């Protein structure tokens, strides 16, 4: 599948030269493109083979002039079992950015592409498209930092400010974004190691992590990271993931509860949701429209239609198969549901609809004073 091309190429390179030390190299060709290469260093004859991975982030334009080759680190075999620890360096297998693991989350993955057993099926929720929702399976995701050097190369394919908080002041609609944070599925991690004591450029790297050569990986959590995680756990926690594929377009939705705020003496509950669209086929398609239905426990049903998503109409191709974005929704009730569809256009000007899997909007107890969320950096100051 197109979305797995990077992973397959890197894994095959490592498997072919398992007795050597494959090094991940970055090749930047122009301001709108970055490619990763794997260079194997043979133990007997030096450099023996090179595996090029055309991972293009924003453009298919090739600008060989001005390309810069930089060593990133030594590639490691991905873990088939278990989980990665805090401080693990990695490449994202779909978006290609460099990152480092802060801490793992255990989520429940509701994959509607998997046919449930009769004993696992649940009654339809509103907008369930006439199918049954399978029982969630435990799956590992990671809170990670993104290397700011790679943010310009992925900004058109994935938002680099996907984690937001309600701000701590009177404007109940104000949001605070944390730059360069992401949630990454276990299978999207391509691990590597580096001898660089500051291998990731991010304003929070040295505030959250420190180098300890006696550890593996050698980057360990500072007390600051532990305090930040504990204080903001309710608003960072990834608990449910919903996934469904229609005509080779896979939609993955992750909702996050953000808290309750008072507005005109009435409670308003806020959620953010992160959506990833992936083209698993070979056909080039473009997202044209969105159609949402939002059901509130108070009994209201809202319909939202519009062009594209977050002001964009992304093209999904074999070379650039994925697009990821975040948005927000508020209800005047502590829970509800969302579902809907995206309308895509093929190269031959025909259209088709892609289902958005239904997902719940569930609130949590607000532990902070007056229902206000703590600021994301409250524990750092």
Plain-language structure description:
The protein has helices at residues 5-16, 151-154, 205-208, 223-236; strands at 21-28, 34-42, 46-53, 68-75, 89-92, 98-111, 137-146, 163-166, 175-178, 181-185, 189-193, 209-211, 219-221, 240-246, 249-263, 266-279, 285-296, 301-307, 315-316, 322-331, 335-346, 351-362. By secondary structure, the chain is mainly beta. The strands form four sheets. Strands 1, 2, 3, 4, 5, 6, 7, 10, 11, 14, 15, 16 and 20 form a 13-stranded mixed sheet that branches. The protein is built from four helices and 22 strands. It is globular. Among the domains are: 1-75, no CATH class; 240-380, Immunoglobulin-like. Interacts with PCNA and POLD2. Interacts with SSBP1. Interacts with PRIMPOL; leading to enhance DNA polymerase activity of PRIMPOL. Interacts with POLH. Interacts with POLD1; leading to stimulate DNA polymerase activity of POLD1. It comes from Erpetoichthys calabaricus (Rope fish). GO terms for molecular function: DNA binding. This is Polymerase delta-interacting protein 2.
Question: Can you give me a brief rundown of this structure?
Answer:
InterPro entries: ApaG_domain, ApaG_sf, Hemimethylated_DNA-bd_dom, Hemimethylated_DNA-bd_sf. This protein is mainly β. Helices cover 9% and strands 46% of the residues.
Based on the model shown, name its key terms.
381 residues; mainly beta; Immunoglobulin-like; 13-stranded mixed β-sheet; globular; disordered N terminus; disordered C terminus; transit peptide; mitochondrion; DNA repair; nucleus; phosphoprotein
